[in-house]
């Protein structure tokens, strides 16, 4: 389950005690935990980013890009959060995927603005480790690969796609009202 490495995913993220089938969630509108407004400078978003709400979080493996200090293209264990964030120049909160080195870090090392991002699940059959993957394909940026067990991959992909769909649907409704 996404977030299985934290004490209690259901209580922490969804504020519920019963077991939740993440794949049955059809909207993230009333899901999440309010954040203490983490502010950080986003390199790919052109200014300060305000994290307003955490929708989900958990440990993932991130494929190295090869452009870090060690030029590593290996897999790195990272803390990830699906969040709603306020970005410069955008009035509505936008779904984002924040990657941290550890659970205690305040500033993410990477932030993906999700509305124009494609999220897909993949499987690498000739790999003994990291075979269950999902990929983020942000508009105008290189693809990023992540790996977890098969169930967690399916849950992350579902939650990421649901957050993108919810945002795009609410944006379309607002545009219809303003026209």
Summarize the structure.
With 179 residues, the protein is of the alpha+beta class. Helix content is 20%, strand content 38%.
Describe the structure using short key phrases.
single chain, PH-domain like, 8 strands, globular
- Report the oligomer: single chain
Total DSSP E strands: 8
- Helicity, as a percent range: 10-25%
How many helices?
2
Rg on CA atoms, Å: 16 Å
Calculate the terminal CA-CA distance, rounded to whole Å. Answer: 42 Å
Could you state the order of secondary-structure elements as H and E? Answer: HEEEEEEEEH
* Bulk shape: globular
Structurally, the number of domains stands at 1
- Structural class by SSE content: alpha+beta
Largest sheet: 8 strands, antiparallel
CATH topology tier name: PH-domain like
The CATH class: Mainly Beta
Q: What's the pLDDT, averaged over the residues? A: 76
Contiguous low-pLDDT stretches (5 residues minimum) are: 3-18
CATH superfamily: Pleckstrin-homology domain (PH domain)/Phosphotyrosine-binding domain (PTB)
In the CATH classification, which architecture applies? Roll
What percentage of the residues does DSSP assign to strands (E)? 35-45%
């Amino acid at each position: 389950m996404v977030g299985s490495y934290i004490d209690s995913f259901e209580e922490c993220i969804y504020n519920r005690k019963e077991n939740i089938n993440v794949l049955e969630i059809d909207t993230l509108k009333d899901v999440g935990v309010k954040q203490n407004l983490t502010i950080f400078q986003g390199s790919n978003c052109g200014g300060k980013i305000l994290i307003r709400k955490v929708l989900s979080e958990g440990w993932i493996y991130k494929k190295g890009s090869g452009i870090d200090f060690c030029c590593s293209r290996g897999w790195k264990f990272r803390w990830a959060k699906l969040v709603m964030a306020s970005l410069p120049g955008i009035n509505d909160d936008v779904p984002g995927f924040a990657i941290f080195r550890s659970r205690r870090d305040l500033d993410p090392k990477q932030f993906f603005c999700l509305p124009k991002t494609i999220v897909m699940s993949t499987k690498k059959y000739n790999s003994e480790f990291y075979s269950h993957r999902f990929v983020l394909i942000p508009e105008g940026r290189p693809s990023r690969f992540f790996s977890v067990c098969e169930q967690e991959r399916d849950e992350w992909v579902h939650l990421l796609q649901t957050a993108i769909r919810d945002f795009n649907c609410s944006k379309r409704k607002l545009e219809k009202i303003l026209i």
